[in-house]
Structure formats: structure tokens, C-alpha cells
Amino acid sequence: MEGVEAEIVIVGAGIAGLTTSLGLHRLGIRSLVLESSESLRVTGFAFATWSNAWRALDEIGVGDSLRQQHHQLYGIVAASTISGLPTSEISFTTKASCGHQELRCLRRKVLLETLQKELPSGTIRFSSKVVSIQEEESGGCFKLVHLANGSVVKAKVLIGCDGVNSVVSKWLGFKKPTFVGRSTIRGFADFKGSHGFEPKFLQFFGKGVRSGFLPSNEDTVYWFLTFNPSTKDKEVEENPAKMKEFVLSNLGKVPDKVKAVVEITELDNIACSPLSFRRPWELFWANTSKGNVCVAGDALHPMTPDIGQGGCAALEDSVILARCLAEALREKPSGGTEEGDGKEEYKRIEKGLKLFARERKWRGFVLISAAYMVGSVQQSSGVVVNFLRDKVLATFLVGMLLKMADFDCGKLSLS
Asked: CB-based burial of residue 367 (10 Å sphere; 0-12 exposed, 13-18 middle, 19+ buried)?
């Protein structure tokens, strides 16, 4: 693989990476996706997929096939872990400015495998860990992407979709995401038959924890519990059996049927991870794009999961980025020298990536800020904040989830 050259190199075969690659493919543009692991990474199990994400999935042509495998949810119910009583309930009957609300719990594995099947063979190159990025010598327009196995890939365009600990983000000058002092335990329960839950998103708050339960289809339910870890919880975070025990002991007064979801979850389907975010103002200070390099997804705007928009925002990014880049590459060179045409194309690529950056900076700022605010209130253990949350702010907080989903990424096709 020494000296391989590619028009567009995407680092990371996660949600943002594969969706961007597929968006470009739909527009007739090939890309090479470099993935550090030996196969698709399916950590996280599932995620809430709101209407803004489904608009993006429809644009790249996989929305309908995914809908057939995941049930639509028709409302959100919030309740107190202390009293067990509901504090608010919102149904998705009203039409928002961008259309009707749509929420499904999308399995990450199903999404990634669907995206992979739609891509040309050879698009994804596994076991390709990026260790450094270098400018081409003699003022060339390519970026030299160095891999752990010693090989180098020359990229005309480099897109970092390599997650929270992004090598590309670091090269652009972004700081490492900040730990927010909270962690989350996630699980996926397979009932081997009908689980019997209504098609609703259940949330429970109180005593410094927040838990949620989302049916994915007739047989499976995704769940999570976010908490403020202490030093004594270190062992819990590394042991699935202790994670399960910890969750069950902190659910509070939830119905037995809900508690049973955690009880039947197999240990292989439980994981814990710390929560981090990018300080939102960094999106304006740092370089979202620089020349022919940019970032998208968690590499751009890592956020806490409190409004369920991390994966959704990555899907938005992908459609907008593919459109901006295709627009830049569509223009034909003026017909001068090869060197002159190359520099002209570089300037068009730079302009396209800057357009993407401008479109996404404010959206990322709003989502990161909203998620942090909602999470801080929902997971507070303070008496006053708990009272305000349960008695005054409950409907507002749930409504924030709907408000953040009321967004349209636009068409993939070029104008």
C-alpha cells in the first residue's frame, strides 16, 4: 500500500464516515475510507434517531429499508425515579416547521452494515490506523496520511470522521474533548419474542441519575443510565456484571416491567463510557477546515447524549459535506498547465470545505450547548433543581428534544 493515491480519503468507518462516503458515491464520486479496526465498530448498540436524521438517511437512499427494521415511537414519557410518578408526556402529533416528528431507535450495527452494502467493493480499508498527517513537500496540494503499518496514502481531500479522539481534529488544532464529570452505561435487551412495550421513549430522572428505555423493534429494547462516577465506581465501569448490578440499584421507583429489561440483558450487551464534549466556542476559534482537510461527526462536535443528537448531527454533516464537496469538484479545470489546474482545483476544494464549515459551526454550537444544559438539569441531585425540573421544567426539557430535531439538512443532489 506504499504510496497509494486517492482523490478523497475519509478517516473512520463510523456513522459520519460511511454516510459521507455513500453521499459522495450517490453523486458519482469515489472515496477511500480508512478504518483502524479489523471490522465495522458497533459499540454503542443503538441511538435515538430523530426526524432530522431520517431526512438525511432518505437523501442517501437508505431511509425506507431502515424503517422496515425499526419501529416508530409516538411519544416521550418522563417520570421521577424518586416518586415513580410521570412528570410530563408529549406525543408526536403536532407538525414542526420542517415536517412531522419521527423517532426510532436505530441499531448501530444495522445502520453501518446497510451503509457498507451500498458502497462499492473496496471502499473501506480495514486495519488502517492513521498515526500522522503531513503536508506534501515542494508545495504540493496533497496530504500525506501515514498509517501504523508504515504505509502512506496521498489524499487530494482528507476528511476526518475518526471520532472523539480524532487525529485529524488534532492536526487542525482542536483541543481534546473535555470530560463532563458524568458517565453512561448502555445496554441492549433481546427478549427473543415480543417485549410488550408501547412505542414510546421512557425517561426517568432523580437522585443524580437519568435512565431511558427505547423499544427498537418488536423483540429488542435499548436502555441507558447516566450517572456521576466517584472513585469507588472505577471497578463498576470495567466490569459488566457490576455495571448491571449498579444500574438495577439506581433505577429507583420504575415499573417492574422496565427493571426486567436490564435484568434480562446479557453481559456482552452492556458497556460503560465517560461522557465528553467540545466546548462550543471552540467551533468558532479552531479550524473546522483548513485547505483540503476538514472534520465531521464526533471529530467536529462531540456532545453529551442528553438530547439524542450526536449520531443525528453526524448524518446531517454527511449530506451537507458530500453536497459541498461535489459542488466544488463538479467545475472543470480551465485547461491550463497540469500544475495550474491542480492549484485551481485545490482552491475550489478549499472553498467547498469552508462552505461546509460555515454551515455547521452554528448548528454544532447550538446542539452541544443544548445537550450540556439539558443534561445538567436532568441529572441534577439538588433539591431546588429537582423541584423545578419535575414541577416546572419537565415539559420544556422534553420539548427541547423535539426542537433540536426540527432541522432539514437539505437535498443531496446538486442544484
From this structure: buried
- 3-class SS at 325? helix
Global confidence as pTM: 0.93
* In contact, 157 and 292? CB cutoff 8 Å: yes
Return the closest-CA partner of residue 263 out of 204, 360, 190, 202. Answer: 190
List, in order, residues 6 or more apart from 55 with CB less than 8 Å away.
98, 99, 408, 409
Q: How long a stretch of residues is the chain?
A: 415
CA distances from 118 to 18, 30, 237 (A): 10, 13, 36
Residues 166 and 160 sit within 8 Å (Cβ to Cβ): yes
Is pLDDT of 52 > 60?
Answer: yes
Q: How far apart are CA 272 and CA 155, in angstroms?
A: 35
pLDDT band at 392; cut points 50, 70, 90: very low
Q: Mind listing the pLDDT tens digit for each residue in 70-122?
A: 999 999 998 888 888 888 788 887 777 777 889 999 999 999 999 999 999 99
b/e map 192-215, b = 16+ CB within 10 Å: eeebebeebbbbbbbbbbbbbbbb
- DSSP code for 37: S
Contact, 223 vs 270, CB < 8 A? no
Q: Which has the closest alpha carbon to 67: 195, 219, 217, 222?
A: 217
For 392, the 3-state DSSP assignment is: helix
